[in-house]
Amino acid sequence: MSKTGADQGVTPLALVALGGLALALVATFVFPFRPALVAGLVLVYAAGGIPASLRAGLALVRHRVLAIDLLMVLAAVAAAAVGAALEGAVLLTLFAAAGALEARAMGKARRAVEALMALRPDTALLRGPDGGLREVPVASLAPGDRVLLRPGMRVPVDAAIRIGEGEIDEATITGESMPVRKGAGDAVFEATVNLTAVLEIEVMRALGESTVARMIAMVTRAQAERAPSERFGDWFGQRYTLAVLAGAALAYGAFLWLGYTPQSALYHAATLLVAASPCAIVISVPAAMLSALSAAARGGVLFKGGAALETLAEAGIFAFDKTGTLTTGRAELRRVVALEGSEAALLALAAGLEAHSEHPVAGAIRHAAVARGIQPVAVFEVTAVTSEGIAGMAGESLVWAGNERMMARMLADAGAAAPPLAALANSAETVVWVGRGPQLLGAIGLADAARASAPEGLAALRRVGIARQVMMTGDRREVAEKIGEELGFAPDDTHANLLAEDKLRLVAALASEARVAFVGDGVNDAAALARADVGIAMGAAGSDVALAAADVALLSDDLTRLAAALRLARRTQRIIRANLIFAVGAMVVLVAGALAFELPLPVAVIGHEGGTILVVLNGLRLLADPIRSDRRPR
After folding, report:
1. Which residue among 176, 287, 441, 479 is buried most deeply as judged by most CB within 10 Å?
2. Sequence-separated (6 or more) residues with CB below 8 Å from residue 366
3. Quick one: pLDDT at residue 434?
4. Catalytic residues
């Protein structure tokens, strides 16, 4: 049922209509009493008819939209005009009751994510410059503030742990069913729960830019951005409503021509009006879509709209970035080879450069410097070169760190490098070359392990029919082949040494074969995420650029969520299809009955409103989908 106005207050009106109908039925069949019958009918027509008439009138005047409410009111008025006011009252009452149930059901779908707002703590323990603690409103926290987090307390805003180590329950945000152990340097997200230790955290984002705020904003946009099937439903509903009105008028004329009395012809035309009303068809799609979007959000998967959900259901190829997506992105430093000066000096220079980068490799270098007690070199005027590296000024010198393409850009030469450098270049480790101008100073070797969830996540996708899986990385061929073989990628589907534009070209080529879902997390993935049929940003801590370019955001780093999201998308598609088949079939049966078998108006009313309620309830089954974190075993 497609309501055109606000549904606030619809439940009390539905109760009034129900009370009026009960009074009318008692006064007709139990204790016949005409004044009570009239009073009951007046209550029903006032509570059920006047609001619907106002909604329909406002929609027609303001938006030039023919609302389905108009069909119901006209049918009820026609029934009263031919002496069947009680049947018209049944129609209006069931219409009001169905509207109330629909409003509650759809409100439940919308509130599923907004409930996260209640998880935000109101206050936090701020550590002042003197080391003391004071309780302050969470809204007053700013990046750089230090906050004390005791066991059992919720994280007030997105932050990073500076002191302490303990377990964090992230189920409310990422859908992760088990607590995650975190220590110094690790990110913690708003509304998650500190379980075991006293932690001191540093605020990374203000409240308005936090994870929960972004979740709510994305889901609100998703519910506003209608899927193609929803837009078609609106388009169809408008034109079909006009056709039903014209058809009822023609039917009235045809019944008169066949010899029916004016009253009988009007009664049958009103029955046809109810039987042919497209309420169930129009509500079939949004009932399922809103429920699926809400369930997905509760499971740590944010769709930016129904269109993304529909497209994911049709995906036949999944393409993955490697670093930070298939791998942990927490590369560990294995060796430092310095051609000039000490290893500590080379690491200090690299850490100073990487302090300005979000790339997972940069984080590994910074972490290694901190672990070794090395103070990073101060670097200014830093510039990131996508898919190559980073450069800046240290004193009067141009310094840089990056891959072989960055080294070539700086005209540095590794051809005459010492044997340890040559061995590092030929290993399966990720190599970061470091230099000053055209001079190569050395290299750093890092190793990045596959995520624990990657093998099962990829296997789960294969089980649901995604046989073609492609890995793309800017890393060297040796590194890519090692991870690709470990995770079961075919050699032909393992692509290395890629620039951002290479990923874009590969995604475009794959899209010519089937619908492509691309999963990535970094700035250099943004173009591929935007070009794919469905772009999926990996992790709540992923690049803001990647999150903006993607159609879907995974709030956890659990790759099994991909298969769960795909199953939900396909299940939503099946439920929408079943709803539409049922709604169209029921309407055809009712219309045939009204035209050929003199279907009584009450039967048409019950069939019409009952069908509408059934498709809404069928769509709401998606709210309990197993993708939800609170529906999965811990």
Report:
1. 287
2. 351, 354, 355, 376
3. 95
4. 321
